[in-house]
Design brief:
By secondary structure, the protein is an alpha/beta fold. The protein has 33 helices and twelve strands. It folds into five domains: about 120 residues, Orthogonal Bundle (Arc Repressor Mutant, subunit A); about 190 residues, no CATH class; about 60 residues, no CATH class; about 180 residues, Rossmann fold; about 90 residues, no CATH class. Strand 6 and strand 7 form a beta hairpin.
């Protein structure tokens, strides 16, 4: 019970801290928020123990409790997956309305009510319409509903409430501008957009931003939150007086409903043209005809399909966005035909002359039979209907010049050209050319290892690189391997859990690699970096298991050890190409030569050693920026030259700090950091490290060396 009380206290304090520091709904990092909460409600010894998520138990419980606050509408989590939370106006009111731990109890009550309401709503809808209980689809459809209700029905803006933007005049003028504008080869979509709508009014630019949002909402996997937001912002920034993207859209951008295929990815201009053509046809309808189309899915289909039959995936996406209960999120023509043929027996085996109506009836029959929403792309269903795909009908005809989007996603989520090498070099005092090689290898292979003796800055360099790769929506996870680390810790395995009644059961728990893979799939346009400290301290063959294969073949699915731990809860798993692994390896513990060949073949290795570039000479470069009254760099070089075993030599990070070293400072570093390391490495050798490597001995040797040089 004490655990529940402390978790409730921390849940309340989280809202109070947000109310104090960010009362207007600004986002605050979870790390800063947790630190403030932890200081107010300290962890017990049991809560401070690190669990399989590499977090203290108390922090994990607190994070789980946050889901109740979200369900109650009191807490908002940044949809970009940046690890930030904000308080809502309802959350501010809840702090006032509920005292003490009553606040969390009320959040739990509201969470249960919302869960029951959603379940009842889904159960009622199963025999009536195409249903999904997927959170991503629910969010995107909430945003699409704003477009339908405010824009199509009333002619108002989705981003600026009450502003008349979706008027016939604005739609016609924007359509004319878009059709007449020349597209410049070699420029990406965002750069071309500035030229294409340069002559538009602010209302028309806002209309374009909302059209782009409408077009992007249902796209999943190949485009994430950051890229969608960037594309919509590219139109908003052209306004003289820009507006902000509402949260309902910002949240929806993190998800999606379908993988759009090649056409919608690489021919974005054609996709936008389809949407504008449909809107132009919309302006030609009477008010009664428009209202009828919003009420009747078949009338809406007449509008969407009446302009042209080309680019069916984009047209089916528009059908789904406005009438999701009738059309559903299957937009591939081939998939629709294959599903209809495979399951037509569910509705009597007779095809009607309306393929969309057949698909809806099939889905209703399957939902009623299963007693729950159906995902046709779940492995159990997909294997019953999917056949090898013929050529994509959205590919342009052979004689048509493709309008490729030069801003199309890079599978890694970054390119080496994106990296600020000068900033990296300035931060670490390492060479720009070395960072170019490191980044190129990471881009090419997806995983690298930095190895060398202690104190050479391996972890610091890995963290600096990961931060420079980061973009909005990126995730950086840091874990540390140890001798007892297992596959179950790293990827997924069953863990004992107890329920509220104290009953013990086992739950399939995701590890850090599985978690970052899920996050990378949601945001495929940005890199996700998994930093593994001391990677050689674990039994790597046991930790990686069958996952070794995926380091080399990212797009090939492989069956994983535990059923349900694969993609979307299936048996097979693929490692997204935008998951990057940066390991660090202490060669004082284990030589690189002792790693198995599978490991060495799949990683690129970069040495950080005081004897070789880029670490060699780093103290001289550092001293040039931080002038020293003592010969720190010379003492360091003399120390390492007197150590016989190469792997016992000392890294320079102990001495890399701003300011001028006093002799007392230097002696403290020597006696508290450097000599203890050398004592450990010389156990049993009979060497007195204080005599041989002590600061006094080195000062004397350095003076003798200087005297010899002056005499010569």
């Amino acid at each position: 019970m004490d655990k529940e009380l402390k978790t409730s206290e921390r849940a309340r304090f989280a809202l109070e801290v947000l109310a104090e520091r960010a009362p207007n709904g600004e986002y605050m990092s979870i790390a800063d928020l947790w630190e403030a909460v932890r200081l107010r409600v300290p962890l017990t010894a049991y809560e401070a123990e690190i669990n399989t998520r590499n977090l203290p138990r108390g922090e994990t419980n607190w994070r789980f409790a946050s889901s109740d606050l979200v369900a109650a509408g009191w807490l908002q989590k940044n949809p970009s997956l940046a690890g930030e939370w904000s308080i809502t106006p309802k959350g501010l009111a809840a702090i006032r309305d509920y005292s003490g731990n009553e606040l969390h109890l009320e959040a739990q009550r509201l969470s249960v009510i919302e869960r029951d309401r959603r379940r009842n709503e889904v159960e009622r809808a199963l025999p009536e319409r195409w249903v999904s209980d997927d959170n991503n689809q629910r969010r995107l459809l909430a945003a699409a509903e704003v477009i339908v209700d405010e824009c199509l029905r009333k002619g108002l803006s989705a981003f600026a409430p009450g502003r008349e933007v979706w008027t016939a005049h604005n739609i016609r003028d924007l359509h004319t501008l878009w059709a007449a504008a020349e597209k410049h080869d070699g420029k990406g979509f965002n750069a071309n957009l500035e030229l294409q709508i340069a002559g538009a009014s602010d209302d028309q630019k806002l209309l374009m931003a909302e059209v782009l949002a409408f077009q992007l909402l249902p796209i999943a996997r190949v485009m994430g939150h950051a890229k969608k937001r960037e594309r919509v912002d590219s139109a908003l920034k052209l306004m003289q007086h820009p507006v902000e993207i509402p949260r309902v859209f910002d949240t929806a951008f993190a998800g999606g409903a379908f993988n759009p295929g090649v056409g919608m990815q690489s021919h974005i201009n054609r996709a936008v043209t389809v949407v504008l053509d449909v809107l132009l046809a919309w302006t030609e309808l009477s008010d009664d005809e428009q209202q009828s189309a919003l009420a009747d899915p078949r009338r809406w289909r007449d509008v969407v399909m009446g302009t042209d039959q080309r680019f069916p995936t984009q047209r089916y996406a528009l059908l789904y966005l406005v009438h999701p209960g009738f059309f559903g999120p299957v937009v591939s023509t081939e998939h629709r035909e294959q599903i209809r043929s495979a399951f037509i027996g569910e509705i009597g085996g007779e095809f009607s002359d309306d393929a969309d109506a057949d698909l809806r009836a099939i889905m209703i029959a399957l939902q009623v039979k299963e007693g729950k929403p159906i995902d046709l792309y779940d492995a159990a269903f997909e294997e019953r209907w999917k056949k090898p795909a013929p050529p994509d009908p959205d590919d342009p005809p052979a004689l048509e010049q493709p309008e490729l989007d030069t801003e199309a996603l890079d599978p890694r989520g970054f390119t080496p050209a994106d990296v600020d090498f000068a900033g990296l070099a300035a931060t670490t005092h390492l060479d720009v050319s070395w960072f170019r090689k490191l980044t190129s290898a990471l881009y090419r292979r997806g995983q690298v290892i930095l190895y060398g003796p202690p104190g050479t800055g391996k972890t610091y360099v890995a963290r600096a690189l990961a931060e420079r790769l980061g973009k909005p929506g990126s995730v950086i996870k840091r874990i540390q391997f140890h001798p007892s680390y297992t596959y179950e810790d790293f990827f997924a395995g069953y863990r004992p859990v107890t329920d509220a009644a104290g009953q013990l059961s086992f739950s399939l728990t995701r590890g850090p690699l599985r978690e970052i893979a899920d996050e990378a799939r949601k945001n495929p346009d940005v890199p996700h970096v998994l930093m593994i400290d001391e990677i050689n301290r674990a039994n790597l063959s046991k930790v990686f298991g069958e996952l070794y294969y995926l380091l080399e073949y990212r797009n090939d699915p492989i069956d994983v050890l535990y059923a349900g731990s694969g993609d979307d809860g299936a048996k097979s798993f693929t490692l997204p190409p935008n998951v990057l692994i940066v390991g660090t390896m202490n060669t004082a513990d284990r030589s690189i030569a002792l790693l198995d060949s599978a490991m060495r073949r799949r990683f690129s290795f970069f040495e950080l050693h005081p004897d070789v570039a880029p670490v060699k000479g780093i103290l001289d470069r550092w001293a040039a920026e931080h002038p020293q009254s003592l010969p720190v760099a010379d003492l360091f070089d003399l120390l390492n030259s007197s150590i016989r075993d190469r792997e016992d030599r000392i890294g320079p990070s102990h001495l890399l700090r701003p300011g001028d070293f006093s002799e007392d400072d230097l002696r403290a570093v020597w006696e508290e950091s450097i000599l203890p390391l050398l004592e450990e490495r010389h156990v049993g050798t009979g060497v007195d490290v204080h005599v041989r490597y002590g600061l006094d001995a080195l000062f004397t040797a350095l003076a003798d060396k200087a005297g010899v040089s002056s005499e010569s």
